[in-house]
C-alpha cells in the first residue's frame, strides 16, 4: 500500500456529462473516507483529486451545472498517477478540443494509467492512445468511434476494458464501475466493496458484463421481427435451441432464418442464444442462492462444468467467484 496519495487528474470541458466527472470523484472521495480497512491517518492519504480544463475556472456541464477547475498549465511537469477523461456531447458529433487532445498526448506517458468514461474515448483516440487497442465507449457512440478511428478495436458491449495501462468504460454510471476497479487495483477488494456499499451500488459489476440486456438489445433493432422469438427463447433456455428449432418457431426454413437473422440482428442465432443463456446464469447467480447444478440446467448449459467453462472464458472467473463478488445473498 502506498504511503503517499495517488494524484488523480480529471479533465473537464463544456458540455461534458456531469456524472462522468462527479461519479468517479465521489468514489475516490469515498475511498479516502473509508477508515475500516486502515487507520484514519492512512485513509486520508489514498487519493488527491484535481479537475483541470483548458483555461481553468467555471465549466458548464451538459446538465447545466458549472464546476470549478484548474487550468491545464497548472500541471505542466506535475506528477500524475491516473489521468481520467470524462465524456459528454451536446450534439450528435463529438468535437475534440485541440488543446485537450494536445495536453493528453503530451502528458499520458507520464501517468501510471490513463482512463476514459463514455465518449471520453474519442479524446484518447484523437491523442493516438487507442490505436491498435481494444476499447469501449457508450453503446450509442461505438459505431461512430469505430468509423472515425478505424485503427481502434471498438467493443461496444463491456462495462469497461483494461488494455495495458489504458482503461476505457461505457456510458455515464459505468465510470463508477471503472473507478471501483481502479480502487481495487490500488488498495484491494475489501476497500472497493466498502466504497460500493457506501454508494449503494448493490453489485460491483465486472468489466466483462454487458452494457445492456441481450433481450432489450434485440428488441431495439428496427422492426424487431424476432421479438416474439426472443421472448420464447428466454422462456425456454433449457430446451434444444438449435437453428432448426428456432426456424420452426418463426415458420422459416433453417437456411433462410439463419441468413435473415444475421442480417437483422448482427449476430448468429447461436451467438444470441449463448448470450441470453449467459445473461440468465449471471442473473441467477446474482439474485438467487440456487446451486450451480440447478442454474446450469435451467439456463441451458447442461452440466455444471459447462457453466464453469463459459464463465472462465467470458469473465475470467468461476461461477463461484462471480457469485461471491456480485451476489446480493
List the helices and strands and how they pair.
Elements: E1 6-11, H1 18-33, H2 40-43, E2 47-53, E3 57-60, E4 66-71, E5 82-85, H3 98-107, E6 113-117, H4 120-126, E7 134-135, H5 142-148, E8 153-154, E9 160-163, E10 166-169, H6 174-187, H7 189-198, H8 214-219, H9 227-235, H10 243-249, H11 254-265, H12 269-287, H13 292-298, H14 304-315, H15 319-326
Parallel strand pairs: 1-2, 1-5, 2-4, 5-6, 6-10, 7-8
Antiparallel strand pairs: 3-4, 9-10
- The 3D shape can be described as globular
Q: Total number of β-strand segments?
A: 10
How much beta, percentage-wise? 5-15%
* Uncertain segments: none
- Major sheet: order of its strands? 3-4-2-1-5-6-10-9
| Percentage of residues in helical conformation | 40-55%
Structural account:
The chain contains 15 helices and ten strands. The strands form two sheets. The chain has an eight-stranded mixed sheet, with helices on both faces. The protein is globular and about 65 Å long. The mean pLDDT is about 90. With about 325 residues, it is an alpha/beta fold. Helix 1 runs parallel beside helix 6, helix 6 runs antiparallel to helix 7 and helix 10 packs across helix 11. Strand 3 and strand 4 form a beta hairpin.
Task: Based on the model shown, name its key terms.
two-stranded parallel ribbon; alpha/beta; globular; 329 residues; 15 helices; 10 strands
Amino acid at each position: 500500500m502506498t504511503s503517499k496519495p495517488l494524484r488523480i487528474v480529471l479533465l473537464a470541458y463544456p458540455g461534458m456529462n456531469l456524472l462522468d466527472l462527479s461519479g468517479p470523484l465521489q468514489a475516490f472521495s469515498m475511498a479516502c473516507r473509508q477508515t475500516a480497512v486502515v487507520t484514519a491517518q492512512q485513509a486520508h492519504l489514498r487519493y488527491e483529486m484535481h479537475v483541470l480544463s483548458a483555461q481553468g475556472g467555471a465549466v458548464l456541464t451538459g446538465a447545466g451545472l458549472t464546476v470549478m477547475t484548474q487550468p491545464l498549465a497548472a500541471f505542466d511537469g506535475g506528477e500524475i498517477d491516473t489521468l481520467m477523461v470524462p465524456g459528454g456531447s451536446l450534439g450528435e458529433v463529438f468535437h475534440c478540443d485541440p488543446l485537450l487532445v494536445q495536453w493528453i498526448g503530451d502528458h499520458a506517458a507520464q501517468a501510471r494509467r490513463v482512463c476514459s468514461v463514455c465518449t471520453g474515448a474519442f479524446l484518447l483516440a484523437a491523442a493516438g492512445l487507442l490505436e491498435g487497442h481494444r476499447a469501449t465507449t457508450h453503446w450509442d457512440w461505438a459505431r461512430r468511434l469505430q468509423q472515425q478511428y478505424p485503427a481502434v478495436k471498438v467493443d461496444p458491449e463491456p462495462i469497461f476494458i483494461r488494455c495495458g495501462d489504458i482503461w476505457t468504460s461505457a456510458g455515464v454510471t459505468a465510470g463508477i464501475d471503472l473507478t471501483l476497479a481502479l480502487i481495487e487495483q490500488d488498495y484491494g477488494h475489501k476497500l472497493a466493496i466498502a466504497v460500493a456499499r457506501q454508494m449503494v451500488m448493490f453489485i460491483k459489476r465486472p468489466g466483462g458484463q454487458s452494457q445492456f440486456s441481450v433481450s432489450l438489445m434485440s428488441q431495439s433493432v428496427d422492426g424487431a421481427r424476432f421479438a416474439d422469438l426472443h421472448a420464447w427463447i428466454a422462456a425456454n433456455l433449457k430446451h434444444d435451441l438449435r437453428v432448426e428449432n428456432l426456424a420452426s418457431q418463426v415458420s422459416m426454413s433453417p437456411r433462410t432464418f439463419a441468413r435473415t437473422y444475421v442480417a437483422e440482428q448482427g449476430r448468429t442465432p447461436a451467438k444470441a442464444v449463448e448470450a441470453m443463456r449467459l445473461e440468465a446464469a449471471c442473473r441467477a447467480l446474482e439474485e438467487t442462492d440456487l446451486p450451480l447444478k440447478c442454474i446450469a440446467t435451467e439456463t441451458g448449459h447442461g452440466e455444471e462444468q459447462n457453466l464453469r467453462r463459459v464463465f472462465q472464458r467470458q469473465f475470467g472467473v468461476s461461477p463461484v467467484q462471480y457469485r461471491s463478488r456480485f451476489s446480493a445473498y
